[in-house]
Automatic annotation (TrEMBL), chains A, B, C, D:
This is HD domain-containing protein. It comes from Paenibacillus zeisoli. It comes from the Bacteria. CDD domains: HDc (cd00077). Gene3D superfamilies: Hypothetical protein af1432. One of its GO terms (molecular function) is dGTPase activity. One of its GO terms (biological process) is dGTP catabolic process. It holds the Pfam family HD. Signal peptide: none annotated. Residues 58-176 form the HD domain.
Amino acid sequence: MNHPLSEEKVFKDPVHNYVHVQDDLIWSLINTPEFQRLRRIRQLGTSYLTFHGAEHSRFSHSLGVYEITRRIISQFERSSYTDWPPEEKQVALCAALLHDLGHGPFSHSIEEAFHMNHEDWTCKIVLGDTEVNKVLRREGEDFPEKVASVIRKDYDKAIVVNLVSSPLDADRMDYLLRDAYFTGVNYGTIDIDRILRMLRPFQGRVVVKESGMHAVEDYLMSRYQMYWQVYFHPVTRSSEIILRQIFRRAKELHQEGFHFNFLPDPLPGLFNRDLTVEEYLLLDEALVQTSFVQWRREEDGLLADLCSRFIDRKLYKYTELEMLDMEIIDEIRRVFRELGLDPNYDLEIDFPTDLPYDVFRPEDDSKKKQILLLDRQDRLREISEVSDIVRSISGIHRGKYHMYYPEDKLRAVVHMLPKDIADLFNL
Amino acid sequence: MNHPLSEEKVFKDPVHNYVHVQDDLIWSLINTPEFQRLRRIRQLGTSYLTFHGAEHSRFSHSLGVYEITRRIISQFERSSYTDWPPEEKQVALCAALLHDLGHGPFSHSIEEAFHMNHEDWTCKIVLGDTEVNKVLRREGEDFPEKVASVIRKDYDKAIVVNLVSSPLDADRMDYLLRDAYFTGVNYGTIDIDRILRMLRPFQGRVVVKESGMHAVEDYLMSRYQMYWQVYFHPVTRSSEIILRQIFRRAKELHQEGFHFNFLPDPLPGLFNRDLTVEEYLLLDEALVQTSFVQWRREEDGLLADLCSRFIDRKLYKYTELEMLDMEIIDEIRRVFRELGLDPNYDLEIDFPTDLPYDVFRPEDDSKKKQILLLDRQDRLREISEVSDIVRSISGIHRGKYHMYYPEDKLRAVVHMLPKDIADLFNL
Amino acid sequence: MNHPLSEEKVFKDPVHNYVHVQDDLIWSLINTPEFQRLRRIRQLGTSYLTFHGAEHSRFSHSLGVYEITRRIISQFERSSYTDWPPEEKQVALCAALLHDLGHGPFSHSIEEAFHMNHEDWTCKIVLGDTEVNKVLRREGEDFPEKVASVIRKDYDKAIVVNLVSSPLDADRMDYLLRDAYFTGVNYGTIDIDRILRMLRPFQGRVVVKESGMHAVEDYLMSRYQMYWQVYFHPVTRSSEIILRQIFRRAKELHQEGFHFNFLPDPLPGLFNRDLTVEEYLLLDEALVQTSFVQWRREEDGLLADLCSRFIDRKLYKYTELEMLDMEIIDEIRRVFRELGLDPNYDLEIDFPTDLPYDVFRPEDDSKKKQILLLDRQDRLREISEVSDIVRSISGIHRGKYHMYYPEDKLRAVVHMLPKDIADLFNL
Amino acid sequence: MNHPLSEEKVFKDPVHNYVHVQDDLIWSLINTPEFQRLRRIRQLGTSYLTFHGAEHSRFSHSLGVYEITRRIISQFERSSYTDWPPEEKQVALCAALLHDLGHGPFSHSIEEAFHMNHEDWTCKIVLGDTEVNKVLRREGEDFPEKVASVIRKDYDKAIVVNLVSSPLDADRMDYLLRDAYFTGVNYGTIDIDRILRMLRPFQGRVVVKESGMHAVEDYLMSRYQMYWQVYFHPVTRSSEIILRQIFRRAKELHQEGFHFNFLPDPLPGLFNRDLTVEEYLLLDEALVQTSFVQWRREEDGLLADLCSRFIDRKLYKYTELEMLDMEIIDEIRRVFRELGLDPNYDLEIDFPTDLPYDVFRPEDDSKKKQILLLDRQDRLREISEVSDIVRSISGIHRGKYHMYYPEDKLRAVVHMLPKDIADLFNL
């Protein structure tokens, strides 16, 4: 059911120029405290320490995902495609807008440190005692559950799930454009107008007209470059490592009964993995940054040092490993311990593809993760069957092992380091 | 004295593409905790509540100002202009980089609320017991004082002051471009390459070659539009009003001995107007946001309400006043009090030109604030003598009085409001 | 009557990204020889001699005007505004597409030299025995006349005329953006999305919602800058002067019975001012350039010299006059004659505002040329009543008198020139 | 020897913002009639019939190549790299500026039709009795020969040749950016600043610092996309086919003694393959277009028809061939002849990679055509050894056979076409 606003509202957006809000439901959702919280969560986590422009929030990204979804559906409606169920517009728009609602501060790191999952939290917020839930229930008592099930990917209208979550969905298109814009890296420029014009609802999926193949190739190549230039940037990885170490150390200290000078709600609950929805919503990146600023002055030297490194950007250095030889790693750890270093904090091995980002790999997945091309005879083909370039990209694993370490601490003991180990660290 | 880096370092910047660092001094300054703190201060304060892209920091702006200054000096050096003193390069670059170092969180509002001045703090940080000061002293014991005096505008080489602070300085050029980029408003696009190419050092000033007049006109017109479209946007003004009210209320409560559940350092010192440099450096926007998030749960209803308004973006509405009639205002205040509203918090009169931004007005100022054109016969003329469009702009005062108020509170008593007053508020 | 294409066609356009063609009528018009001829007419005439990127054609501009008109009407239809007559869509789109059809090569100069008018020719082509006419008649026998009358501005539905021809019409918006893009001058950037969103059909006119005032101000300021930076650029003026001199000289020679080695159809008819529509359509800028290339080798020294100047870009120099003193001009002409120069060709006085471009001047014109703002109470106000900046701009006359001359010829006689005259020419 | 201009001159350029001319030699070369002729030769030949923005000239491209070369050399000089011979600056800049001087109208097609080579003509113009030659000789009698030998790639300083002509040269970088800009296709966006910063002179070659690998990958991927999206676009291929047919038919007619109503110099010489340099310089695209406009009225029906097709853009349609089966082609030709069609004109088989563009293929070529990466230990490696993505791209042959034909002529005889053949043409 639509409740059009008396007058369309717009948000000025550097990426899409304007985000158009035409329905009171969307407007009300944007104005809930839960959605406004996304202003205090960065879209790219710690990347701002590598690319100083990357301060953009999940709030702006969420508006962008909503806007792209709106444009796709609007094109489907204009063209009266019979495979698009028009009554699903509202649930699709709401799911697009709200899909990131459960992200915590520095999402990937905090999820790893505290074994959480942002999708679960999104559903809890949508279904819990929140403003967002109240607004959604105006559409019907079962409406929050519908939105949640799109987000959980088990909604019974598969095309709605496909629209909001697929290798060529509004989410990925927005973040590619947005992250390119705010980092200033120009690899992410894609011809979104052309891609959108080429999308078709077809038998419960969103597919691409065959003549749009080159635009999709370009999109996948842009994504490929953004992964290696931005998302897996070693400096960003270094800051994420320190972030996780801080979380780990703070949790250890808390469990050991350490007295923090600064430990506001809901941090104790976070450490105990016992958070209500209300408490969870108090978590944001301002709180995390403030804690780290304050913890630079805590008595625990390790915690204070790690927080200084993060806040004052004295990150770990890294060195590339030709291969991952566990014997060598064990030897390094042993030497570290001998020299008074702590191998649990002073050494981290990192392999970027561990990250929960997905590069498109047609072979290892079910049909849902494929991009399908629709030819003039209404036949579907998976894009890598048709495109040499996509086939070439999809087989490539470029990740390399890196070893991260505090250079100052190693330099202090460099004269005691065996030469072969010193060489590994370029000391 | 130059200490070139073994290899030039660059920062990827969306506005200037790359920021180039060629000297170890600059590199070391960027890596001090005091400079890194600027990552946690937004360039545009509360504007992100109006333009969601405007999350960019003073860190990125400061790099931009440095980069523009570097390019100007580099052009001066390449052309071997005799009016440029080459030995002043380092002091000019350092002053450009550090000129915003003393900004606090939501600078304009906090300065007004606590009677501080960011320029004073910049000088205190430059001259105090800080990392920045240590790095600067590598250039000589008097070097910090030199940099501070450029920032205070009393350095004895006037041209250095003029380069860093004038109506056409690197500061203004960077923020115009940067704010336009991050808000997405395209009024700020200026031909900076052309302007830079037209600048000349001349008799202790930076002046503009006459043939660059149109580019300067365009710059001033862009600035004019940015003021009205962005800097004075009524929604931004509303958020600044609430911000100042929060600061005011918190200070009142603190002075009354109210017990805050959340009041970390250095907030008590801030309320008492008694901050050391070390404490001041703990202040940033993450702390302010976190405090407001927490204060939403404090016992004082007014404080909690104001903090909710700011954090959850339930701002005051506004209405335009045809003229400022103090009798009417007094009457409104009286009625407010009768109805249980608090005119000190529920009503604010605002006139945008009160803001500490300067629109170029040649007539009301000394020569230092003028833009001078240099003709082929080496004669100087103030630009508004030559340019009709500048003359036209400079006389215009467009500010209007606005009345800001909490719409929900007024709606609750609307049946008791005299009709003429209700009309004023469009109720 | 609409005849939708089975599938929308698009043109890739650097300015609007895509131009969308949805109706067979528009598609057929674009594919007529008369419309394709516009590929061989530059949008900015001789400006490519000043700005080497400005080679864009009236073909691309016409597509752009069509596209903007299509977007405006589409917004009117989406919003179901009652003041827009939906049955006028086709005539409006055709008039928008075809409004420049009658432009000749280097339009402004050739019109002046041969007393022609491109609007007349547009109507002749629309109404004559042409492919365009045949396509238009598919819509009805009176349809070509309807389109012609919109172009002549006497169509009985005033709003259609207003849409296609007004101070804020699709024509001006497209050329501002397009000329800025192709010259590379960034003064022409306007927020066209916002302007289009603010347009309303209202009582037989297209007006602007009051809240769009700043966007219109910006548009008018951009236009102002483009006039002075691009359209009135003295180097372009110089090339136009030489162009007119070539036309003048060739016509003189033709009337004197001179034998041209190169004089293909329809040049004789052009010189005799006796051209059929069929002949007129043979005229394009390729023909004019080819003629000039060939005429560099004609026996008449003056014609050959002028053609070399144009083709090889050896343009006249210019000097600015403080004021226009006819006594001085007459004295110069006398001296020129004495020294064997030809004052009819070796001296031209130019005053840019003579050009048939219009700067917005609210005071000197009927209501049709005004930009009207619509406030919330449905009152209309002329923009300069409300906007200080528009009022400021509209009064400004910046044109200056320039004297153009062949520098080489003057240098050859410089020793015989009286000093005061030599000074005027900076010799 | 440098002769700096008293004041730097600039050209406003949409791609590089400004092209800077600092030396009188370059300025004088730009102002020769031979260089100005490049204004009348389009950079992308007939592509404007597919992408209406692509009217940009070889004049603008040549300035761009010069500008990029200037920036590379300027970086080499600033960094005082010992492998760059500073005395070669002028010859490198001149070769960069002039490398396209010998291009004729619609270069690739005319070269094929008349067995010419633009590089030969460039050298003839540089060495012949021309203005360009006169200007070059100011630098020394042997200077024109030096420039010519760089263009012929046999100059004895290999690094100069490498700078002007290699897989990562200024030529390719400019055309990628420029063609993307003017067509509006955004696949060509590359981070040229970064690539330029990564170039190093090294042992007689220009190589790339290893850390620039991703930027080079992106450049090669952009090029790959531009080839398939723009350079090999089937509509452009169709217009080139017609162009070659016109040249072929006109030459046939001329050799048969046909009387042309329009046949100005130097067309007879062109048909006889007997052109002096002076005559060659009369050739440009204005002449070719004018000839075609006029020839639409010649008595030979075939010539007139072909010219109409080109000028009025009634191009041949095309159909894709699964494979090239000469038996089928011969059968089609036989049927065509039976039905009164002319298989020499009404049927063309096309395979895009025949075009003289090079896609980077490391395996099939000498070291000169390789892109080499320089690592920290000063070792060189060919990029496809290091980059998976480059290795993937370089093996891909995407070309497909197309059959081009006049659809109207085939439709006229469709009832007599055997069904299997009609099917091939989608009739």
